[in-house]
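in:
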């Protein structure tokens, strides 16, 4: 499955554009566009396959560059401009979210994540880290790459700023803080950990300001976002699993950035989807109290256990991202609390503390 982020989702063509064009023997079609494709990955088999696919693109005459390490990737970008980057989500036993941030800092180039997992966590954290799309390895084919490149490259817009850049900084500091799949630190590293946590807190403050003043704050009904997210997570339910939503009887208006709020709700309710995918039942409740919106996910039966290291890393980074998004919206989130997972955000911006 190929997924493109934000403004890079292809527009629906009109009827005239969909009509077949008659050609004769002298019609050779449009000239192939020259591009440079950088593939970042540490699996030689994947690099070989993608290289062959890129070389066979019908719409592009592509120069293929391969990098097996972070250093090689940044070196390649410094030596020559690239039109698109295909980057593995999982390299050398860790995710590449920090590398995406480094790429975006040195080059205005679209980055498409590739992964063997069809995982919503990867899509969410990848999008918020600055990736422009997600491509499953099972869907790798000449036609797929040609379509993705044809859609993505002509529609490039100016680099995203404000909240998006702050989110990339947040993800970078989350990674640097050593929080993802990291065992408890000993006392000798406590000081270094505190410095990195301070950098993380600064990113959160910047992100909150960006969400309030640069991310399109609007007033809307909070319930609709939960309805859509619950439907999406319910599709993951295995035999005996279910996601139930106790829908409030009255609208719950909230004033915040719909973009940040949508990803916050989707990421938070993944906890319900995890329970349903393990055969359990998750109940989502939503209420307003003293100017705040409180959402709770309670699970019974079926406990999700991610065996694959890549899936565990994606889930861990997803939780860290949800925590950051909650702070950006002026709230907080508590996972595995006594009464379930709890998300608490203010209903109005005036409720935020400076």
């Amino acid at each position: 499955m190929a997924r493109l982020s934000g403004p890079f989702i292809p527009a629906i063509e009109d009827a005239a554009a969909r009509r077949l064009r008659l050609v004769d023997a002298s019609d050779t079609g449009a000239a192939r566009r020259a591009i440079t494709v950088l593939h970042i990955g540490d699996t030689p088999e994947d690099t070989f396959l993608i290289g062959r696919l890129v070389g066979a693109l019908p719409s592009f005459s592509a120069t293929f560059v391969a990098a097996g390490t972070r250093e090689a990737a940044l070196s390649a970008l410094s030596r020559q401009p690239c039109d698109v980057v295909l980057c593995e989500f999982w390299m050398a036993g860790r995710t590449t979210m920090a590398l995406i941030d480094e790429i975006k800092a040195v080059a205005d180039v679209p980055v498409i994540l590739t992964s063997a997992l069809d995982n919503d966590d990867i899509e969410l954290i990848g999008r918020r880290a600055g990736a422009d799309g997600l491509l499953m390895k099972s869907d790798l084919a000449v036609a797929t790459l040609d379509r993705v490149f044809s859609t993505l490259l002509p529609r490039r817009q100016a680099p995203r700023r404000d909240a998006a850049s702050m989110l990339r900084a947040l993800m970078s500091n989350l990674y640097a803080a050593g929080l993802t799949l990291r065992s408890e630190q000993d006392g000798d590293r406590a000081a270094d950990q505190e410095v990195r946590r301070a950098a993380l807190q600064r990113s959160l403050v910047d992100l909150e300001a960006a969400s309030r003043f640069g991310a399109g704050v609007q007033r809307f009904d909070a319930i609709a976002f939960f309805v859509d997210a619950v439907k999406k997570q319910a599709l993951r339910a295995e035999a005996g699993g279910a996601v139930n939503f106790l829908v409030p009887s009255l609208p719950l208006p909230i004033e915040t950035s719909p973009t940040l709020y949508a990803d916050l709700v989707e990421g938070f309710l993944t906890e319900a989807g995890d329970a349903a995918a393990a055969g359990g039942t998750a109940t989502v409740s939503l209420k307003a109290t003293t100017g705040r919106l409180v959402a709770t996910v309670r699970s019974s039966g079926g406990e999700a256990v991610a065996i694959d290291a890549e899936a565990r890393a994606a889930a861990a980074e997803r939780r860290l991202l949800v925590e950051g998004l909650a702070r950006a919206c002026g709230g907080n989130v508590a996972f595995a609390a006594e009464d379930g997972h709890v998300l608490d955000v203010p209903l109005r911006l005036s409720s935020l503390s400076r």
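note: The chain has a mean pLDDT of 77.
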